[in-house]
Known about the structure:
Blueprint: H1 3-21, E1 33-36, E2 52-55, E3 58-64, H2 77-94, E4 102-109, H3 115-122, E5 132-137, E6 147-154
Parallel strand pairs: 4-5
Antiparallel strand pairs: 1-2, 2-3, 3-6, 4-6
Amino acid sequence: MSTSSAVTRFAALALLALVILGPAAPAYGQETREYIDARTASDGAVPPFSGAVRIGETLYLSGMIGLNADREIPDTAEEEARLVMNSVKSTLEAAGMTMDDIVSVQVFCTDLGHYDAFNSVYRTYFDQEFPARAFIGAGSLLFDARFEVQSIAVRRK
């Protein structure tokens, strides 16, 4: 078989595959992005990050801390844990997802002695399997927070 007929045959097979299978998925990095609590570089008066970014069925949540209505850290570790987990839940809901869509969590904590207090609150936010998680000791956090929580969620089918 000549080279030109092999190329013609390959092109015909590729065209047939495209007709049968439909167009290919977007190339890596070409998926549509959706921003939750979006902020841009021109928003000079707000912190320079968005609340979350969805690419396909994956949602990347920014680190969150548990501030009360007065934008202060509450007196107890349990209340702070509840506030930070409520923030995570609210961001997920704004993206049309639930806590059970979370697949990975990183908890940064200024005092590892708060591990049990955090866990007593954390476990109440899930109905299905717990996500993979790291609980990491941190020197200090913004606003003297005890906890900062960062997560990744993938919509369950």
